[in-house]
Design goal:
The protein has 25 helices and no strands. With 469 residues, it is mostly helical. Among the domains are: 77 residues, no CATH class; 212 residues, no CATH class. Helix 1 packs antiparallel against helix 2, helix 3 crosses helix 17 and helix 11 packs across helix 24. The N and C termini lie far apart (55 Å). 48% of the residues are buried.
């Protein structure tokens, strides 16, 4: 039965009041009433998202609908991005993921990756992190990757006697969580977050496009620093004193228990391999990556690996709606003149923050980390900071990727138990055997440091790609 709580009603009413008041403020020079209506709708949406009054995608879609109601834009104008390539890339890659992880193929690949590593605690930490990194080239479902590696780390805890919330068990959870979720954002095939980030980069006149290789070229330095930094942290703070010899035969026993590869598994392997090769070589052959993914999904349907029922039930439609809605809202700041007004108002402060790219990264990381104590969702922080700084960055010919990627990655911090929605599902996926948030706190404060170092280390690469003007 549907229920609405009084606190939820209060949050919604506050958001509506704030939106109405802002929409009726006196017009700034160069703005029309439609501009102020957009401001009111936008801030009301931010309040709804920050207060978690409704799911993020509901708040975003409600904002888009309100713009249509008050004729800020026509229906076809506001919702035009849903016909664009980014939304269809998300739908196709999510459907691709549903099909690719069926059967025993990916489990077999993952377990064989683990075999060559040493049967020590740190050897298996390296094995798990490596296996998940390889899966990031194939599976955009972060939680599917956690579920696939969960039996391995749970077996290590059981065999070695590591209790829940011990430093050793916490280290194994970190070894799964960081590459499966945080580092998956650096791959177009690892998660849908890259499309989400592109939504914040777009304006009416600027539509950035990325291929598999161009996105990875932009992120690989950060990934390397993040993975190495995390591995070193685990070795320093979580490694058992005796080195932690583990049950090496578990992997072989698990492989032996897997069912034989079926005809569908072999077809899956062919579709998966061809798709990955075509994605990685898009700059050479010129075939559109979105088209490649859609055709791959077609073959999954034709071969019966993916069914219409699974497509309807297992594709993450709220994520599709959220990213599509953000794309719908993104273009209006420039067409309504708001970008110019913000640039004039915040010009002096923005100029100081953006005076040097390293300064901007450090300031943005500190501000975002502090705000995440209050904001349960990172989305409103990205929206507001981008609205304030992107006009200045465009004036300096700095690619918006630099700011948006920085905001997204540092905003994925989890220093409290309530401020990162992607962490709680990891606990039941690992059978609540490894650790709770309290055991992860030391790493939760190391994460922003490692993340910031990774972003700073990426500056030379971004400069070589022409992102820094």
């Amino acid at each position: 039965m549907f229920k609405v709580s009084l606190p939820q009603i209060f949050k919604i009413v506050v958001a509506l009041v704030v939106g109405i008041v802002l929409s009726q403020l006196p017009l700034a020079a160069g703005l029309e009433r439609s501009s102020m209506i957009y401001v009111g709708v936008f801030i009301a949406m931010v309040v709804l998202m920050a207060a978690k009054a409704v799911p993020d995608f509901v708040a975003v879609l409600a904002a888009c609908g309100t713009l249509v109601i008050f004729k800020v834009g026509a229906l076809t104008e506001v919702f035009a991005p849903f016909a664009g390539g980014t939304v269809w890339q998300i739908i196709s890659i999510l459907a691709f993921a549903v099909a690719a992880q069926k059967g025993s193929l990916l489990s077999l690949i993952t377990l064989n990756v683990l075999k060559p590593f040493k049967p020590t605690y740190m050897g298996q930490v390296a094995a798990v992190m490596t296996a998940i990194t390889i899966l990031n080239f194939m599976i955009p479902s972060s939680f599917a990757k956690v579920a696939m590696l969960a039996p391995v780390v749970i077996n290590i805890c059981d065999h070695c006697g590591y209790k829940k919330n011990s430093k050793e068990a916490a280290g194994l959870l970190i070894a799964v969580f960081i590459p499966a979720i945080q580092c998956s954002f650096a791959f177009t095939t690892g998660s849908t977050a890259w499309s989400y980030m592109i939504g914040f980069m777009q304006t009416e006149t600027f539509h950035p496009t990325f291929t598999f290789t161009s996105w990875l070229a932009s992120t690989w330095v950060w990934v390397v620093v993040m993975m190495v930094g995390t591995y070193l942290f685990i070795g320093l703070f979580n490694r058992p004193k005796d080195g932690g010899l583990v049950n090496k035969e578990f992997v072989n026993d698990t492989i032996a228990k897997l069912p034989p590869l079926t005809a569908k598994d072999k077809i899956n392997a062919v579709i998966l391999l061809v798709s990955i090769v075509l994605w990685m070589t898009e700059s050479l052959h010129g075939l559109n990556g979105i088209g490649i993914t859609i055709v791959a999904v077609f073959f999954y349907f034709v071969t019966g690996i993916l069914t219409p029922q699974e497509f309807k039930a297992n594709v993450d439609w709220p994520t599709v709606m959220l990213i599509g809605g953000i794309l719908c809202l993104a273009g209006f700041t420039s067409t309504l003149g708001l970008s110019d007004v913000l640039a004039n108002l915040l010009g002096p402060v923005a100029e100081v923050i953006t005076s040097h790219i390293a300064v901007m990264i450090i300031v943005v990381c500190i501000i975002t980390f502090v705000l995440r104590y209050v904001f349960v969702s990172n989305a409103p922080i990205i929206l507001v900071v981008c609205a304030a700084l992107l006009p200045v960055l465009f004036g300096k010919s700095i690619h918006p990727f630099v700011l948006v990627f920085t905001l997204h990655q540092i905003g994925a911090c989890f220093q409290t138990s309530y401020n990162y929605i992607l962490l709680p599902p990891v606990y039941p996926l690992t059978q609540d055997r490894l650790a709770e948030h309290k055991a992860l706190v030391p790493y939760a404060y190391a994460y922003p440091v490692i993340c910031t170092l990774g972003l700073l280390a990426s500056i030379p690469m971004w400069n070589s790609l022409g992102y820094l003007g």
